[in-house]
Amino acid sequence: MPNNRRVIWRDGEFVDWEDATVHILAQGVQRGSLAFDFISVHETPRGAALFRLNEHLARLVNTCRIMSLDLRTSVDELNAACLETVRRNPGATALRISGLVTSVELDLLPSHPELTVFIAAYSGSDLAARRTPLRDAIKLRVERLKQGRRPEHIDPQAKVAASYTPAIPARWLADEAGFDDVLLLTESGLVTEAPTSNLFCVTGTEGTSQIVTPPTDKVLRGITRDTVMQIAASLGLSCVEADIHVDELQAASEIFLTNTSRGVWPVVQLDDAVIGAGTPGAITRRLQDNFRAIVSGESNDFPGWLHYIEAQT
């Protein structure tokens, strides 16, 4: 949909795309305290549906609690606003909810702390218009100089703009070197996550394979991460949280990332090492297929995960 036909929800009303603006000196812009969440929209046989809307809204509320941000919009109002934003933007493929302090402030702590909330819809063309095209299977570079999330600075469960800034230089270097994304480590060389994705690996041999992902004290508890762990359990696949040293990761038979925009995203190269046969592994494909069937409404598994835009009669 062209931008001149799109509308954005702002604190209870819809405004044109180009009118959803704030002052350049707004506290949320200058201090990086903008809280946000990103929700996928899927076409199904029963119409458009938001995936795990309730969980995304709960995470936004938790982010605001962690960061002492004054969110005055209720969850019920946000829920209804998300549905209406999809209705008013036909063809939407994702929503981004942003909450920020829009008052102009000189101090670190705002004198007017209440958040203004925006809900914007992305189309498929927005997600396709990237600096580098998205591939179906990717190459991942390990960042060994800059560490991942630092819980002593910002809680890993807080989705705020400032949390993503430290990874930008590493992401630029990876991009320039021909990699699709970057993997961040702790100071001791343990795997954490990619800047906007959680990581899983498959270890062991056929028949004794185990899916492993880093513990939640080191990473954002991604909603797609949780989705994949539940799908794995339903398929009888062993999936555990455990520390993974970067040296162990290169011996994995499969690696994949998970995030809202890509679902299950196979990794076929880590630095210069080819993972497995250099193609998505069997377990990755199985999880990917099941995930796609669920979000498209083709599968009846986990029916509560799809939040339909139009009520069913």
Polypeptide structure, described:
The protein is of the alpha+beta class and 313 residues long. It has two domains: 3-128, D-amino Acid Aminotransferase, Chain A, domain 1 (2-Layer Sandwich), CATH 3.30.470; 138-295, D-amino Acid Aminotransferase, subunit A, domain 2 (D-amino Acid Aminotransferase, Chain A, domain 2), CATH 3.20.10. The chain has nine helices and 15 strands. Strands 7, 8, 9, 10, 11, 12, 13 and 14 form an eight-stranded mixed β-sheet that branches. It has a seven-stranded antiparallel β-sheet with strand order 2-1-6-5-3-4-15. Strand 1 (7-10) and strand 2 form a beta hairpin. The longest helix has 14 residues, at 53-66. It is globular. The mean pLDDT is 91.
